[in-house]
Amino acid sequence: MNVRKIAAVAQREYAQTVKTKAFLIGAIVMPLVIVVLIGLSMKFQIDQESKVDPIELAVVDRTHRVADCLVKLAAGYNADNGVPPVNIHVEPGTSDAGDALDSLKRRVDKDEFFATICIPADVIEAEDTPCIVYTRAGSFGSRRHTVQWLVGEAVKCVRIAEANLDFRQVMHATRGVRFEQRDVNGKPKGEMEEVTGVMTPLAFAMLLFVGVFGVSQSLLTSLIEEKGSRIVEVLLSALSPFELMSGKILGIAGVGFTLVLIWATAAYGAATWKGLDGLLRIDSVGQFLLYYVLGFLLFSSMLAALGSACNSLKEAQSLMGPLSIVIVIPLACWLYIVRNPDSLASTVLSFIPPITPLVMILRTASPVSTGLPLWQQIGAPIWLAAWVVVTIWAASRIFRVGILLYGKPPGLFELVKWIGRR
């Protein structure tokens, strides 16, 4: 094995890939997408805070008692800067008017009202009689909850008054409790920080997925193209199969690391811009670098073996199908893994070699993780490194046979026979 030859192949592979338009577009477009998404989220937040359409609510009060209280509550809610403000439209003389209710529902459908609510006559005395809220299809969210809360409070006010209880004392005794969330160090923790804390492990996992599985596929494409054009035969006249495969893997690894560095820098800049850079832990960065190197060596050697055994990209994609299904398992289960990093399922998934890098980065970056057991922190990378060595050895034996083989692609059994061939 000649190290200089491996370095020369790696340098050539890196230079050829970096100079392509696809690389430049990928390196520039991703940071721009991050900046645009951050800018749009800020714009939407400012627009939402500066302009909020009021809730226009039509009320059909068949008790003739709740509507007055509802109007007063809405006025107090608006005076306390309730967002969005609520405008109550009480429809007079509708205790028995079904036609009037139908007319109001049509106005809701035309978006003249956000909702029409029908308060039944026995809602004060009954325990399970519902108030019917008529809204347009697809109406949901905080506006509907605001309407229901106001109507519920109005009904309670009437019940308290008719029970001859002191309204102020009852409301004081049943008032809500305010909560303030802090982390274990006593630092206030807002909803934005909580959501971002959960999304940070996913960002690490996606960066790892794209940097490893996405970029390493270019190695597969490069091998198939060179094999189809017979360039690989010229290269093998001066290099051994192992030197060629190793050089290509190292070159593409450099390409992936360059892309990841650019994207990670853009993501960190965006997080700093939003004041969320404190969510990034140094140990998570170290874990990411470790699993990036091991994961890339594992996948690139697998794809190098597939690329050497196939004559076209279509053939390779059919063989990659099972691998693609396995690799997306952590991304499909990311929320469970982040919320339960110490569970048995998360631990078992950490020791399945193809997905170990993704699962471990989700667990170590989890905001609820207090630190994985030492045996897992040491055992998972050692286990993965052992599989990397075995995979590279098996891939090199497949590579030396398949790279000069043309015709019908081999099946799985034949690939196993190539590994055992001396």
Topology of helices and strands:
Layout lengths: L2 H16 L2 H30 L4 E7 L4 H14 L6 E5 L7 H12 L5 E5 L12 E4 L6 H21 L4 H7 L17 H38 L2 H6 L4 H33 L8 H28 L3 H15 L1 H4 L1 H6 L4 H6 L6 H9 L9 H29 L9 H9 L2
Parallel strand pairs: 1-2, 1-3
Antiparallel strand pairs: 3-4
Report on the architecture of this protein:
- By secondary structure, the chain is mainly α.
- Helix 7 packs antiparallel against helix 9 and helix 10 runs antiparallel to helix 11.
- The protein starts with a helix and ends with a helix.
- The radius of gyration is 32 Å and the shape is elongated.
- The chain has helices spanning 3-18, 21-50, 66-79, 98-109, 142-162, 167-173, 191-228, 231-236, 241-273, 282-309, 313-327, 329-332, 334-339, 344-349, 356-364, 374-402, 412-420; strands at 55-61, 86-90, 115-119, 132-135.
- Strands 2-1-3-4 form a 4-stranded mixed beta sheet, sandwiched between helices.
- Strand 1 (55-61), helix 3 (66-79) and strand 2 (86-90) form a beta-alpha-beta unit.
- The protein has 2 domains: 3-32 and 186-420, no CATH class; 53-173, D-Maltodextrin-Binding Protein, domain 2.
Using only CA atoms, what is the Rg?
32 Å
Task: Work out the count of structural domains.
Answer: 2
Helix content: 55-70%
Beta strand count: 4
The helix/strand order is HHEHEHEEHHHHHHHHHHHHH
Strand content: under 5%
Give the N-to-C terminal Cα separation: 18 Å
Given the helix and strand composition, which structural class is it? mainly alpha
What would the average pLDDT be, to the nearest integer? 79
Largest sheet: 4 strands, mixed
Low-confidence stretches: none
Total helical segments: 17
